[in-house]
């Protein structure tokens, strides 16, 4: 039920992000979703791509520091209170959200959010018990 | 004004005869009381009785900082601890510090040399000396303090730090001379300005600056900005502390070496061979009056040259040019000695840190800043920002704790620190000295 996310360390200097997208483009890797966390000196770029292996290899060859993390893709009803309901469930279950970001594409009438939890196993269990749809990684990459 | 007319204006011949006599006594004492010297002389095949002329000094082996570290703490002392009245030490944070001792007479000698230096720098008995050198194990503060008292001037033992309070003291006590590192003095001037106090409206006539390399350009800036005359002072704890050499305010051209106490030589740092007067090389000192801590041919690693010409001020003591650099990679950051190897030790103690790092030293405004660039490898990398920032803070804190300088830590991408084929380039010094 997990999806794999790759993350990349970036120094805050011009052209670095473009270097990543160029590398992925040349490796024919499609970016499905992304988020960038930054400080004044550096940033961490997180990506969901359609081919983790190819992306990882291409980026490492270019000398980037690349990490892999398990995240969870959750279907969020595309309506007022949709996201709040899910966060309410997590809060009640004592799960902490490390970070989250939106997937670029909708799944049917739902939006897709990518979550990183402090306790992925518990979070998945809790979401399942509460009827929240979690999207399998293999499906996510090709949505 | 000259404090010690007899010695400071002594004809060369007379000086050399005093130097030889004192050298012979010192070598004899070092050989008899310090096992290290007895062993070293033995290895070099030289005995104290072989020192018949000043030229024979060359036959004696060098003493290095490592030798001092190997004999930590008191192994180089030539008198029993009963006779040692003062101990100073270098910061020596992660490596072994170097420890020096003084007898009561050594402290007097030092005070006299500092009094000489203050007078050469422009001070007299009526002056009020604002002494902003750090007090403590560092020799700067107490060295200048004792010299000021010996001279009979009034000394304000303000030490370093508490910058705003220093400005108030300057405004209210009206000191006429400041002794400090040049960079701290410029910082004082900046803070004063923020507080609405202009250095030019204060009562300073002279500043006696040392403990870090500073250029002619910096002198001009200080003189212009602060409205005072700036002279350079040189010294190191291994020899005695501040007061080994001093620039006279008349010429401001080279620092008069107290040759009656310290015999200078210039050597080629690679070969160890002596270089003729005027050539630039590493300055080596032999102390010839120190009781507790005599030192024979100490390699300072400071790069300079010696000019034996008498000066317009009347002094016949030879002058060394402003120190232009070091033979090793030691950095002096805001008066604190920092070796890249020390930073390396701090970094390497943290297992998550990669071995690739670089130190970038810059001068922002008038203060030195140190940035430590650390490469982020797979081990440290995290998909969230917080652990990375925490690591930056941890490295910074450790450097401050172990070495005593504030450093900004900057995480950089792997392989972005230039690799060199031979020795790594660990230091990028962007200061325009």
UniProtKB/TrEMBL annotation, chain A:
The keyword Cytoplasm does not apply. Residues 5-74 form the ACT domain. InterPro entries: ACT-like_dom_sf (IPR045865), ACT_dom (IPR002912), ACT_dom_pair (IPR045739). SUPFAM superfamilies: ACT-like. Residues 10-37 form a coiled coil. It comes from the Bacteria. This is Amino acid-binding protein. It comes from Desulfonema ishimotonii.
UniProtKB/TrEMBL annotation, chain B:
Residues 335-431 form the AMP-dependent ligase C-terminal domain. It is an enzyme of class 6 (ligase). Pathway: Aromatic compound metabolism; phenylacetate degradation. It holds the Pfam family AMP-binding. GO terms for molecular function: nucleotide binding; phenylacetate-CoA ligase activity. Keywords: Ligase, Nucleotide-binding. This is Phenylacetate-coenzyme A ligase.
